[in-house]
Amino acid sequence: MARELPYIAAIGEAVHQEMERDESVLYFGQNLATNDEDPFLKAFGSDRVRVTPISETAEIGMAIGAAFAGYRPVVQLYMAEFMLVAMDQVVNEAPRFHYMTGGQVKVPIVLQAGYGFTAGWAGQHTGSIYGMFLGVPGLKVAVPATPADAKGLMTASIRDDNPVVFFHHYLLTLEHGDVPEGEHVVPLGEAAIVREGSDVTIVAIGWMLGKALAAAEQLAGEGVQAEVIDPRTLAPLDTATILQSVEKTGRLVVVDQSTRHGSAAAVIAAEVASDGFSSLKAPVQLVTALDATVPYSEPMEAYLLPDEAKIVDAVQQAVGATVAA
Amino acid sequence: MAERLDSDVGLELLRTMWRIRVFEERVGELTRADEVHGLIHLSVGQEAVAAGVCSQLRADDAVYSNHRAHGHAIAKGASLELVLAELMGRDSGLCRGVGGSMHLVDVEHGLMGATGVVGGNVPLALGSALAGRLLGGDQAAVVFFGDGAVQGGIFVESVNLATLWRLPVVLVCENNGFAEFTPRSAHTNVERVSDVVAPYDLERETVDGNDVGAVHAAFGRFLAEARGGGGPMLLECLTHRLRGHYEGDPQRYREALAAEEWQELDPILRLQRRGAEEGWLDASTPGRLEQEAREQVEEAVGFARESPFPPASLTSELVYA
Asked: What is the ipTM metric for this complex?
């Protein structure tokens, strides 16, 4: 049975259900349980639900050490940027230990990090910074775009034996959608074909998925049928689903709220250029943020970011262009 | 003078220190011969800290080490064969040749993590301590770090959290006076590491880290408290790194110790003098222990030389668990 839930509640439901199911799941974070009525604290107690000081490095490092002993900590970091102060733990410790020990240890931790809050939150609370983690072997990266996927990917992240950075989009926080009750798992590494089409493939990440679907509706009115794919996880990346779609459509537009250099869009474009070049009938189009820090002022913010019109424009260019045989 | 060392304890500490000393000196030779081929940091001169601490731990007590990890691994029970094979990049090594000198891990013996970024190991030990407490056992966690780690924010964050949550972890600082290539005085105005943590209300003690008996006694007290539900504690061991920061370091930043001066400081010679004075060490035992260590290390060299390198396919097999 599914019922409507907001995206953020779907994530909370996944954590709660996994904590009920598995006593080894712990929950760490700043301001996590601010009063005795907190539902996590009431259900699981202060041994498993632990309010931390503003010490991301120590929080994440401690989670790794507890994971060595078999625990599965979820560290709630709130803002993805807050993870940057703990990069040694995120990049050098958590994802490298299984590898460097020849497989002796596992590090099943989830780093829950909100991102992309482009609503006047200015330069240090708005970044879509998942791209920089794609160069970190051993780390998995989830980027849910819907409430159902948010629940399913969080469940899979907690059950995974590897460190997972779970990026939830702040502008989707209160978006509602059907979410299955009870156990719901979306495997890490499986993209979803959200809309089928034959003329162009649009790969859209996170908040961009809704904009891509709106653009696809508009384009359908012009006789262009877009296939829309949500990668759902960026590491591992389901390149096969994207390549199969491009084989069918011959055209690729990648929509990503990140700055272009270091974006997931650049990685996806490179994979298709490398392994799907013979399918392409037109140059790959990237619709990303400009390579600039997100500004405070609202019109400037809009200027910098991808939107529906920019996606439509990119698709029209892809469809209009043909590669000489 | 402290009370007389128990003869079994004294002999075991001496045996461990000789194993570390001979191993480290042999690794230095193998490095110069390029048989050990990576970045190597030796702990010659600091053996008393590793031996005095690890000899009292069980396999289920997690130990975290740093870039200077060989002595800690040996003292915690890792096999000389497997450590040396790891340093020579072999598939039979502790970490299948993937980790190397700075990342020695031996889960079976509770050596949980050697990390190569200064200070990166400290919060990991807190996690082990927390897990031990949640599991309801009496295990303790120990983390070794140098005086150079103390000036990093990660250290202060970890001390704050460990004291806030009363975690059973013993923070063992090997204060050899040098953070890589520069003396402590170039890093901080606080001379003693144990003074850095003073406001946090944790038990702390500074000992002569080249006096293995002193390390053993102080750590033993802290360990008993951690087993009984106490913690955290900080043990600062003042010691001396006889060799450079890494093998090949020209050490232009300091004067070499005079041989007579080192005779006074050498933790092995000091323990041997003490054993003779206290009557639990006869004249032939030091030579025998050294010889035993040499034979064990040569066996390890032979084992490592005969071991194959890891298969290339291991690269992708190990990326994800």
From this structure: 0.93
